[in-house]
């Protein structure tokens, strides 16, 4: 098996494909500033290109007990309650993966790596 591929429910899926699905779902949640931390270089690249993939290590996925487990690293805007925001990210990610890939999601772990403050 290729290390860049996960096999679940009899299909092989690139980790990059899963990462893109997860990143897009999470980035649509109000309060998420970015997926993968608050790296200025990554933010500039995403502004000036159509590249929609998350930075390396921003999304991790493994198969456990026949279900997909996802860990996502995000930067969030100040003023959004962390527990509520994490619940919304979990829900969005699980729904997107189940709809797009067609596999059950066992867990979505949300890691809040940085906080973005609005300009005053």
Describe what is shown at a glance.
This protein has one domain: Cation efflux protein, cytoplasmic domain (Alpha-Beta Plaits, 2-Layer Sandwich), CATH 3.30.70.1350. The chain is built from 3 helices and 6 strands.
Give a quick set of tags describing it.
single chain, 120 residues, alpha+beta, 4-stranded mixed sheet, two-stranded antiparallel sheet, 3 helices, elongated, Asp23
Structural summary, described in words:
With 120 residues, the protein is an alpha+beta fold. The protein has a single domain, classed as 2-Layer Sandwich (Alpha-Beta Plaits). Strands 3, 4, 5 and 6 form a 4-stranded mixed sheet that branches. Strands 1-2 form a two-stranded antiparallel sheet. Strand 5, helix 3 and strand 6 form a beta-alpha-beta unit. The chain is elongated. This is Asp23/Gls24 family envelope stress response protein. InterPro entries: Asp23. It holds the Pfam family Asp23. Belongs to the asp23 family.
Rounded Rg: 14 Å
Q: Domains counted in the coordinates: how many?
A: 1
CATH topology, anyone?
Alpha-Beta Plaits
Low-confidence spans: pLDDT under 50, at least 5 residues? 44-51
Overall residue-averaged pLDDT value? 85
Backbone structural class? alpha+beta
State the CATH class.
Alpha Beta
Task: Name the CATH homologous superfamily.
Answer: Cation efflux protein, cytoplasmic domain
Number of distinct beta strands: 6
Largest sheet: 4 strands, mixed
Spell the H/E element sequence: EEHEHEEHE
Classify the helix fraction into a percent range.
25-40%
Q: Note the overall shape.
A: elongated
- Give the count of helical stretches: 3
Distance between the termini: 51 Å
What's the CATH architecture? 2-Layer Sandwich
Beta-strand share of residues = 25-35%
